[in-house]
Sequence to fold (329 residues):
Amino acid sequence: MVVTTIGLTRRFGSLTAVDDLTLDLPTGGVVGLVGPNGSGKSTLIRMLLGLIKPTSGEAEILGRSIATPQAYAASVGALVEGPAFVPSLSARANLISLARLRGLPASRVDEVVSIVGLAGRDREPVKRFSLGMKQRLGIAAALLPDPELLLLDEPTNGLDPAGILEIRHLLQSLARSGRTVVVSSHLLSEIESICTFLVIIRFGVLMLMYAGPMADLLALAPTPVHVRPEFDSDHGRLRQALTDAGWSVVTPDAGTEATVTLTIAAPGEQAAQINRDSLAAGVTLAELTVSRDSLESIFLEMTGNDDGELAGARAASASAAATAAAVRS
Fold:
């Protein structure tokens, strides 16, 4: 495992940012770290980097304790919040300065510039760079020590769609090269598209909501089948035929555009049989689709649908934590 935590906890006064977190992150691929605002994602990353100390608990990075971050610092690269560079200096000059501070050869600058796709632009002053290019430069700085593990906190924050696509391809390329890339992000569509492993955390006593392969979580989502007859007049006949065949047909609200579309609560792999049953009833389908909840839908179901629900859960969690602390004392 590239990262292991056991009962990792961090408190700031009366606020518990990370509470008794135990998890294992696999080596290789892109690992997504998601959770509502205030769930402790950034605090977790800072503890793993040795920037702040845990209140209690343990963690290991690449088999070394976070109590001695110097033992693994050369094998870990990080981008926390927005990268800071000297705007008037070129990208190359900024990277050379960082390389010298770490005792790395200047030749490494050429390598990382090529990896992140800034070759040919590296002699331009950073002040001319777009936000996406600055993020690439930040990742280049994180890659200077040729790390086994990259920890990136919101690497696509504030980027336009083109910039997000650039960073997505870059992270996938880094993972293919054998590195482990841990990405914290609130852009769930991006996490869904690039990550092979997912961790969902939430504030409170039960901190860990999910940790496992992305495919396994998405497989838990329901996959209803939607059918629409070629002719609207066949709607009633289709519904009756499918009901008689034993399917659970969901009737949409009357007066909506969906009234001619029927939803069958059945696994997506049963779509072919539903099509055969429709044809057996003499109804030709104009549409047959299988839908699956997105990561966003699953995430909201697990963590809360709105700020009010989250605030209520946060207050209940804080109350439970205070009660538990009083009992312990």
